[in-house]
């Protein structure tokens, strides 16, 4: 399992959001990994098995996701900065998404 995983749920439909492009970057903008959510809205393998302590950024391609469904959205992308402690086992970043709102939290 990678050190960082993600999950996207389309709250407006009550279903997983399949096909969302996700990018993991260091805070300096250097991309570490990218993936696309599977049919369950999950990315179980986003990057390496470990990361150095520091600030990282995950970007969700929400504009393309909604455009592929012919749905207008306020958010062309959603970027979340988060702090990594290399001593932790795993970081899970869930995103609850709708065309005009979103929420996130540190998952398990």
TrEMBL record:
It holds the Pfam family Transthyretin. Residues 4-107 form the Transthyretin/hydroxyisourate hydrolase domain. GO terms for molecular function: hydroxyisourate hydrolase activity. Belongs to the transthyretin family. 5-hydroxyisourate hydrolase subfamily. NCBIfam families: hdxy_isourate. Homotetramer. This is 5-hydroxyisourate hydrolase.
